[in-house]
């Protein structure tokens, strides 16, 4: 079989999604009740981004546990987590394929285990769904932690959908808070929060869903009276403006000053980059990101850069085989999304901008952000610099792009 036909898909299983969703809770532990491969795989993607902030363990089910049952292993692991991770107020037990196939009574074990930590079961066997469904299942597992609020705090929001393993998650959140200023307060952002923040989520006036979290938001609206809106991730100037207008309308907050500042930032950015941007117009680009980022990224490339988005796929369902077929057909001059696109980018000798999970060869040690005007500048900078650094080609659509940029660079 040809190598191109055996490339592994970009997507993963429900367990990976559950781990992603819960990783941002700073005082909680993720305990996987599964085989070692689940722990290794999910840990590898997380470890590349934040090795200093990994609260994840596994009880490691072996062959004999498949025959005899894994309940004993789980009970022992819970005792160890109480001892080793005493600073964690909650343990999310994420059960994978094997314990669910052999019928381990995980809920029964948790109900009869004594200790000071809250124990919550997230049932996430890989065969039950993809990575997206795992995120939603894990979010729903937070419901027992929520505390009913007598009244809402005006102009406060919860943010769902952005994950702790996103290389720019922390900086993007800081940039969002900067734009919101004193007008809107972030009550809880699930990519960086505590159990106390989660308990206080019903106090917020509004929930924001970036791709994920709609099932949890619906439950909170029905049971706790917290409405929600679905938003595209605010890439670029226009993306941030749209987000602020959407948020302002829902909360009745005036962002006129912030919108004007974005206009001024856009003019400055265009002045500095227009000679390069004109060479990107209608050039084909391929996007493959998770659901949280896809719509916003697609709008940024099409509406702000004027590029022709020929491929825009959610990585939860899209495979590298299909991406290779689509790339052969559309011949994009740029790939944007996950590190898994690296081989395709090298094959076609075009740039790859890494901005979405899993980005295991892209780290961020600065305060760089991908949202708003600063984010637009960074993305444009990465695109143009990557194009200039590619090996020279004398034919194909990409050659024209690089030559045009080089001509501007020499003037």
UniProtKB/TrEMBL annotation:
Gene3D superfamilies: Nitrogenase molybdenum iron protein domain (3.40.50.1980). Pfam families: Oxidored_nitro (PF00148). Residues 13-386 form the Nitrogenase/oxidoreductase component domain. InterPro entries: Nase/OxRdtase_comp1, NifE-like. GO terms for molecular function: oxidoreductase activity. This is Oxidoreductase, nitrogenase component 1.
């Amino acid at each position: 079989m040809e190598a191109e036909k055996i490339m592994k898909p970009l997507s993963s299983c429900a367990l990976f999604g559950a781990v992603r969703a819960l990783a941002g809770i700073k005082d909680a532990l993720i305990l996987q009740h599964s085989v070692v491969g689940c722990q290794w795989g999910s840990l590898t993607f997380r470890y590349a981004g934040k090795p200093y902030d990994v609260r994840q363990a596994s009880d490691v089910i072996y062959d004999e546990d498949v025959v005899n049952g894994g309940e004993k292993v789980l009970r022992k692991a819970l005792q160890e987590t109480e001892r080793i991770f005493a600073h964690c107020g909650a343990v999310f037990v994420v059960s994978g394929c094997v314990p669910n196939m052999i019928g381990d009574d995980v809920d029964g074990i948790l109900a009869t285990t004594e200790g000071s930590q809250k124990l919550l079961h997230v049932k996430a066997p890989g065969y039950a769904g993809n990575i997206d469904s795992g995120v939603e299942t894990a979010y729903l597992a937070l419901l027992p932690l929520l505390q009913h609020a007598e009244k809402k705090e005006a102009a406060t929001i919860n943010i769902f959908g952005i994950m702790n393993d996103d290389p720019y998650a922390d900086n993007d959140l800081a940039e969002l808070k900067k734009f919101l200023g004193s007008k809107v307060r972030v009550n809880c952002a699930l990519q960086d929060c505590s159990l106390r923040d989660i308990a206080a989520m019903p106090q917020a006036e509004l929930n924001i869903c970036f791709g994920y979290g709609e099932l949890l938001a619906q439950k909170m609206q029905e049971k706790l009276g917290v409405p929600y809106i679905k938003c595209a991730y605010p890439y670029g100037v226009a993306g941030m403006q749209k987000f602020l207008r959407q948020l302002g309308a829902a909360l009745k907050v005036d962002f006129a000053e912030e919108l004007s500042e974005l206009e001024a930032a856009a003019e400055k950015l265009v002045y500095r980059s227009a000679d390069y941007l004109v060479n990107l117009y209608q050039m084909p680009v391929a996007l493959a990101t998770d659901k949280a980022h896809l719509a916003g990224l697609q709008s940024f490339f099409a509406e702000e850069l004027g590029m022709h988005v020929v491929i825009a796929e959610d990585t939860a369902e899209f495979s590298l085989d299909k991406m290779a077929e689509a790339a052969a057909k559309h011949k994009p001059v740029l790939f944007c999304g996950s590190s898994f696109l690296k081989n395709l980018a090298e094959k076609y000798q075009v740039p790859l901008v890494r901005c979405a999970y899993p980005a295991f060869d892209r780290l961020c040690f600065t305060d760089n952000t991908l949202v708003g005007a600063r984010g637009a500048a960074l993305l444009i900078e990465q695109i143009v610099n990557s194009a200039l650094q590619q090996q020279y080609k004398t034919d194909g659509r990409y050659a024209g792009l690089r030559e045009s940029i080089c001509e501007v660079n020499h003037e």
